[in-house]
Amino acid sequence: MTKINSEKSLITQESLKGRDFLTLLDYSSDEIAYLLQLAYDMKQDTLAGVMPPLLAGKTLGMIFEKHSTRTRISFEVGMIHLGGHGIFMNARDLQIGRGESVHDTGHVLSEFLDGVMIRAKSHKMVEELAEHTSVPVINGLTDIFHPCQAMADLLTIKEVKGDLKGLKLSYIGDGNNVAHSLVIAGAHMGMHVAVATPEGYEYNAALLEKAKKIAEQNGGSVMATYDPIEAAAASDAIYTDVWTSMGQEAESAKRLVDFKDFQINDQLVGHANKDYVFLHCLPAHREEEVAASVIDGPNSYVFQQAGNRLHAQKAILASLL
Ligand code: CP
Ligand code: NVA
Description:
Elements lengths: L6 H5 L17 H19 L11 E6 L5 H12 L3 E6 L11 H11 L2 E5 L3 H9 L5 E3 L7 H15 L6 E5 L4 H12 L3 E5 L8 H13 L3 E5 L2 H5 L4 E4 L11 H7 L7 H4 L7 E4 L11 H4 L6 H19 L1
Parallel strand pairs: 1-2, 1-3, 3-4, 5-6, 5-8, 6-7, 8-9
The site of phosphoric acid mono(formamide)ester has 8 residues, from α3.
């Protein structure tokens, strides 16, 4: 009989049942480590063709206010793997798109669904939705956070490098939603995290302080700088994201100028460790935030990283729902 790697882990997940997954600040470092290990184990199972129907008969509603390729598909496939169903809902087509309150929407969704995944413009709105929804609400990206992405990011580094503790992870680019969650995730795992942004595009100051505290508790560190070379130096992993996020398109010309010294190119990665891992949440803009030679080069794991959205989220879904 095929060994189920995740079997032991799944027995111990009761404390996560019914929780929302809005930010990685709501979880302890032990819980994040547990979810990562579960994701790793469930991936091994999946690759071996073992997919126990842990969520048989359960339905996840997936609301999108913004575009998505990876998030939509990985959640939908994840629910299929777990024996349940995912329902895609474009927020525009729901009554919430023409004014029904978040309060009423949350209560109504709770009548039908076992979980809600939402990609929204406003993190505040997602918090309000979670408040009025009795089933778990999972954040599939807001203006401030992208926690499911960060779980896939760490899973990828773990696969390539093994133990995460003590590794240097640098995020170079816009201090955005992806950056916020990534740095907190790295802090939970005791990594040494460096964030380099241009002036005016800094990582949120309050979140930086929280991330620093979490890192210290785990033997890691978090630092912010305006110098991309300082961040890249001796890195085990280098991460970037688009310079213009969804909804910021009007600023894109200015951002191209403001971020020009923050491109991840051969010169910059020359400061990292030789076997550094390059990561990007995707979608990417080649020759803007990253040179094609880097994202398409031998140190890039971006497609494995995208695929890991599936496995990271299956662990979250199986634990919460
Ligand atoms: N990385 C990410 O969230 O991709 P999508 O926007 O395609 O979902
Ligand atoms: N920072 C990007 C991430 C996309 C997955 C955005 O918000 O558009």
